[in-house]
C-alpha cells in the first residue's frame, strides 16, 4: 500500500477575517474601530489572566450597577442592557446574566440567591461524601461478617 495516498494535502494558510461576525452583529463596518482595537493597551489588561473571567470585577460591578439602575426606570427599561453593554464593550448576554443574578440577590426578582445556591452546592457535596462513606462502611461491615453479595 502506498503511503502517499494517506497523506493530507498541505493547504495554504489563510487568516480568517478578524471579528467580522462581531462587527456585523453590532452594525459596524470594517472602517469602524472599537476601543483598544488600534493596539492601545486596555486599562483592564493587567487584571486579566488566562484562567480568570473574561471581564474584570470592577467592570462587571459597574456594568451591573448601571444596568440595574436603568432597569428600575420605566422609561429607560427597554433596551437598557443592550445599550449599556455596547457602551462598555461587554457582551449583552454576559451583562444579562450578571443583572439577573444581581436582581435575584437584591430580592427584586424571585429566585435562588447566590448565597443560597452556594449553600445548596455545599450541602450536596456533603451528602455525596456521606453516601460514599456509608457505602464503604456497609461493604466493610459485610466483609467482616463473612457475608457476600455473590451467590456461590
Describe the structure.
With 152 residues, the chain is mostly helical. 52% of the residues lie in helices and 0% in strands. The radius of gyration is 27 Å and the shape is elongated. The two termini are 54 Å apart. The model is unreliable at 48-52 (pLDDT under 50).
Quick gist of this model?
The protein is mainly α and 152 residues long.
What keywords describe this structure?
152 residues, mainly alpha, Arc Repressor Mutant, subunit A, 5 helices, elongated
Q: Which band does the percent of strand residues land in?
A: under 5%
Q: Note the total helix count.
A: 5
**Which quaternary structure do these chains form?**
single chain
Unreliable runs, pLDDT <50, ≥5 residues?
Answer: 48-52
Topology:
Layout: H1 20-26, H2 57-72, H3 80-88, H4 92-106, H5 114-145
